[in-house]
Amino acid sequence: MPEQTNHSPLHSTVSSEASSPSSRSRINNRRSSSNNSLESIHLYTTPQTQRKHSGGEGTDSANSLTLQSIATARSSLSSQSIQSSSLQSVSHNSADESTPTWKTSVRRIVSVLNLVPKEKTPQEKEEEQKLREQGMFLTRPAICRQPLKSVSRFCISLSGCGFLGSYHFGAVNCFMKNGQHVISRLDRVSGASAGSLVASILLLVPEKLDPALKVLFDLGEELIHLNFGALTPGYYLNERLIKIVDDFLPQDISRAQGKLYISVTRKKERTNRLISHFSSREHLLQCLMASCYIPMYSMGYGAEPPHIDGDACIDGGYTNNLPDFDDIRTITISPFSGHAEISPRDEANFFDWKMTVSNQIMNVNLQNIVRGAQALFPPSHAVLQSYYDQGYKDTLKFLIKHDIVQRPRGTEV
Predict the structure, then answer these.
(1) How many CB atoms sit inside 10 A of residue 191's CB?
(2) Residue 257: in which H helix or E strand, if any?
(3) Residue 238 reports pLDDT greater than 80
(4) Average pLDDT over residues 134-139
(5) Which of these is catalytic: 54, 166, 193, 343?
(6) Catalytic-labelled residue, pool 54, 166, 315, 394
(7) Is pTM, for the whole model, over 0.85?
(8) Can 315 be counted among the known catalytic residues?
(9) Does residue 193 have an active-site annotation?
(10) pLDDT digit string (tens) for 7-29?
């Protein structure tokens, strides 16, 4: 009886697909993928099973297939073991520390990507400091490159910093006690905002530096106990400052003429003005208040700023927060880390970013962000005291580095 052929639609469809070139390529791909699967299976089978799959004992094809599968499996297992070991180490470190989830995630990313900077040797830190100072002096007048021992005229410039003015008090007190080489040759003092207040006290009544520091601490404590600090409705910081500064300024201000430089900002033009000549004591007081005036912060919303010679003027920190001069050796001081000669030295971050804010180059880091907040919303008395101590220490390091430490009686140490 002749053999019957199945002519069902399913059979004809399969036959037509198998005969087309595209279907043959898909079939070959399936075969290659199945061969790869068999190669991975060979690693976990016994030698007898491997011989069964290969179709015979001791054949060349079986040996080559087995060796190839072992190599493939070893490479995949080694990569998996590396990933698992790194993840285990990260999870072990994070498990030891009881930190919130987001901190754990950040630490994992930093650890896996190896973003944590290595601990630097003292030599590397010294080289980094030299490079930092070279970059610092490249942005300043040529007169700043002279050795300090050969300088005959000095200017001390104090940056705007709000309640962190305690840092300036520490720096100035260190100059008074250990920097007579600078104080005896001090021809000019400049400042912006809170720096202008400290500058006026240094030049006119240096004997009142300690009482003025105590007033700063008391004013900080006063604001801490307010719900919104200086922004508390009904509280006007500028009125408090006028009374405080008026109590400290002497009646004779002749010494300030041409020596005290106060940075203010013309509100309308948004330009800077350095005022060094004062027609009266009241004029000097108005200049100091204008240099410290922050719109909406000092006197509330809608208040009119002080007027100097017919111009409405606001905080000098908006346009020139750290005055510098071309004709005199200026020592710049700031509680914000950056290019100021006397300033905190923060540890270098992975990204050493800097930015220029109102003529002052500062580091972009978390420490300076915190300092900026503390300048407007004062921290505790202990923190303000620590800024005073830091200013004193940083200034003493500066004097020792340039070998100009000199006590009031002339004793060099």
Answers:
(1) 32
(2) none
(3) yes
(4) 57
(5) 193
(6) 315
(7) no
(8) yes
(9) yes
(10) 444 444 444 444 455 555 554 55
